[in-house]
Design brief:
417 residues, Rossmann fold, 2 domains, 8-stranded mixed sheet, 5-stranded parallel sheet, binds cytidine-5'-triphosphate
Length: 417
């Protein structure tokens, strides 16, 4: 017997209306998802909700159905309109957002289990996925949870880090679902990305810490992991850009976009300078996320021997790459700098923005917990030539990259390319 799909039980949304699948897993923060649903509907999106069976213990499916664009689904099997709701939802989604994402849901998604409608939808979609984990601090800090999240990040899934604050049962700590407004804002930026806000733009990103050779064995370097730069390159691809990455590190690049990035591997500041100069000529956007050495030296050709005593290293100043690129900037080109600070962050960053002449400056306090070098998360303040600085609270480096690139897209001259 052949099966004929029946029409959806609601008016089919116009294809120009972004379709959001809101997944809700079984955690107490599920009550906040009702507010998130309302905010997403207020933004004009078509929202379809999928609750795991455990989620329905916290909030009723009827509540979501009353606010959503179509009846809420809770099972792979009880949808009268289609025997394959997971592929229907997955393939029609502009974005899939899961809030809250529990440790159990994250583990199932990371291992490719599809034993309910929500996990099956996650596996069936090629749309951007945003997970918003929420759980008790002890669970959040479990290496198994963090490793599952790292796996998902590597595959291109965006993670909005939980906030610190009061948790269920009177506890306090990291694990709180961010406010629905924050999640809705991020979903909007992803939706804009899905529409390709950087479509056709050429984006040049530098990443990683430079390594200045002392001899064939030893280097002078810094603690940069390159993760924020790599995340910027990945997200720029997802936003439709043609991306060149000049980097001292190339892992972990998300697998879904790695192929699309033109990678130039460099080691030291001089090589990075040369590559950036060459590639910036035909770039619409230049992002200097690399931690460049300020000092270098003429390396010895042979390994310095201990028996010869403590070497007297003669350091020399390195040219400031971003300032040089600013002097060569062509009409309409946008240049973004970073500021790694450990004290007087806002004051130092504002001065750096003026001194370097960049269009946007991304400041981070690299001494703060979970921020900057080596971490998977970041918290930044975006300075622009006009307007108040914009603080982006602690979240994954991919999510920070979305915020930065949304600002970049808004500043690019209209009409081009
Ligand atoms: N930068 C650069 N070339 C350098 C040093 C830094 O292009 N030789 C860029 C960085 O990529 C970043 C910005 O300048 O976009 C600020 O880098 P940061 O390390 O924060 O500051 P510095 O300019 O090095 O100044 P300081 O170390 O005194 O804070």
């Amino acid at each position: 017997m052949t099966w004929t799909p029946s029409p959806m039980p609601c008016a089919t949304p116009s294809s120009s209306i972004p379709r959001i699948v809101l997944g809700v897993a079984g955690g107490i923060a599920a009550y906040k998802s009702v507010e998130l649903l309302r905010l997403l509907r207020d933004r004009g999106y078509h929202v379809a909700c999928v609750l795991t069976p455990d989620a329905t213990r916290f909030v009723g499916a009827v509540t979501f159905s009353a606010l959503a664009s179509e009846p809420t689904r809770t099972s792979l099997y009880n949808d009268p309109t289609t025997p394959i709701p997971h592929t229907y939802l997955g393939t029609h989604a502009s974005v899939v957002v899961v809030a809250p994402a529990t440790a159990h849901l994250i583990a199932r998604y990371a291992t490719g289990l599809a034993d309910d409608l929500l996990t099956a939808t996650l596996l069936a979609t090629r749309a951007p996925v945003l997970l918003c984990p929420a759980m008790h601090t002890e669970m959040w800090e479990q290496p198994s949870v963090q490793e599952n999240l790292a796996t998902l990040r590597r595959r291109g899934v965006m993670i909005l880090e939980p906030e610190s604050g009061p948790l269920a049962g009177g506890d306090e700590g990291a694990g709180r679902l961010p406010e629905p407004e924050t999640i809705a804002e991020l979903v909007s930026n992803i939706v804009d990305g899905y529409r390709g806000v950087l479509s056709g733009r050429r984006v040049l990103v530098s990443a990683g810490g430079t390594r200045e050779a002392i001899d064939p064995v030893r280097v002078i370097s810094n603690r940069s992991s390159g993760r924020q730069g790599l995340a910027l390159a990945e997200v720029a691809v997802r936003l439709g850009a043609q991306v060149t990455l000049v980097s001292t590190v190339t892992t972990p690049l998300a697998l879904d976009v790695a192929q699309a990035i033109d990678v130039i591997h460099v080691e030291n500041a001089a090589e990075m300078h040369e590559a950036m100069q060459k590639r910036s000529v035909d770039s619409d956007v230049v992002i200097m996320a690399a931690a460049v050495a300020d000092f270098t030296l003429t390396p010895s050709n042979v390994k310095l021997k201990k028996r010869d005593g403590v070497p007297q290293l003669q350091l020399m100043a390195v040219a400031d790459i971003v300032s040089d690129l600013v002097t060569r900037r062509h009409e309409g080109q946008l240049i973004v700098g970073f500021a790694a600070e450990t004290s007087d962050v806002l004051k130092n960053a504002a001065a750096k923005m003026r001194d370097k002449g960049v269009d946007l400056l991304i400041a981070n306090d690299v001494a703060a917990p979970g921020v900057g070098f080596g971490h998977e998360t970041n918290e930044v303040v975006i300075f622009a030539r006009e307007g108040e600085p914009q603080r982006i609270s602690l979240r994954s480096k991919e999510a920070v990259a979305y915020e930065i690139l949304a600002r970049v897209a808004a500043l690019l001259p209209q009409g081009a390319p």
